[in-house]
Amino acid sequence: MDIEIRYFAAARAAAGASSVLVQAGTLESILNQQSEGNSELTRVIAQCSFLVDSLVTEDFNQYINPGSVIDVLPRFAGG
Question: Burial letters for 13-25: b for 16+ Cβ neighbours within 10 Å, e otherwise?
Fold first, then answer.
């Protein structure tokens, strides 16, 4: 079973997709793999917040289990 990454707003535009399926790993390794070779996505991800299974996380060493969902949320205008 894979992990689903859902990209929103500027992250979706930079990724070129609204969602992708990836293999389990740490949040950091997953994000690095996704942004490899995509400087725009790298720039956007550096400014994002992340939800793992609907819970905010700032722990990039957190292991993401198969079946989980990662939401990549850029800063939104208007608060």
Answer: ebbeeeebebeee
The pTM score is: 0.93
Coil, strand or helix: which one is 34?
helix
Dihedral sign (CA 60, 72, 22, 32): negative
Cα–Cα distances in angstroms (integers) from residue 60 to residues 10, 29, 38, 77, in the given order: 21, 8, 19, 25
Report, as an integer, the average pLDDT of 27-56: 97
Beta bridge pairs of residue 20: 5
Please tell me the class of the 3-73 domain.
alpha beta
Instruction: DSSP letter for 18, please.
Output: S
